[in-house]
Design goal:
about 180 residues, mainly beta, six-stranded antiparallel sheet, five-stranded antiparallel sheet, 1 helix, 15 strands
Length: about 180
């Protein structure tokens, strides 16, 4: 049996969109502000597009959607994907309007976003994963967390233990339900 790989990261979460249907079917939502309870939104988190409440949050009705904001780096010689997260302090009035992608069964992407980070200089010890492991959205945090075969709803499966573009460990995952 293969040994599990520790998915730790320095900096903010990253997403490499391998095969995300939202990029072709247009199910990208970016018109509601994030709940004021969020100070940082990392790529790879999941939020709900709570249209009735007029905000993106963790508690609304509907399905969780993948946070995949446009990465804005101003010195690519000094910065990388790990240096970007949407931060309330960077926005006029602190109003963040995240871009959410609806995912479908079969969608595939690579990520290292397991657990919250507050700074590009900080390190997060995520989870230990191997091919075949299952993941679900932690409804309290919006981050992926290990799942069991008894869990229902949106489930992702590790298809490959991989690396992110900057060489940090990551996993390629596929939505299976």
């Amino acid at each position: 049996m293969p040994e599990k790989t520790q998915i730790s990261r320095k900096g903010f979460g990253q997403v490499e969109p391998n095969h995300l249907s939202a990029q072709t079917n247009g199910q990208i939502y970016a018109q509601l502000p994030a709940s004021t309870t969020f100070n940082i939104l990392e790529n790879g988190m999941f939020l709900k597009y709570d249209y009735a409440a007029g905000e993106c949050n963790l508690t609304g009705k509907g399905e969780y959607m993948l946070v995949m904001n446009e990465i804005k780096l101003y010195d690519e010689r000094q910065q990388g994907l790990k240096d970007y997260a949407m931060q309330k302090t960077d926005f006029m009035g602190g109003t963040m309007v995240p871009r959410l992608l609806r995912t479908e069964i079969g969608d595939i992407y690579t990520t290292n976003t397991f657990g919250a980070n507050t700074s590009p200089a900080s390190t997060v010890t995520g989870v230990s994963l191997e091919v075949g492991d299952l993941l679900k959205v932690n409804t309290a945090t919006g981050y992926l967390t290990p799942a069991t075969t008894a869990d229902t709803g949106m489930i992702w499966q590790v298809g490959k233990v991989y690396t992110m573009p900057d060489g940090q460990p990551g996993v390629k995952i596929q939505r299976i339900s």
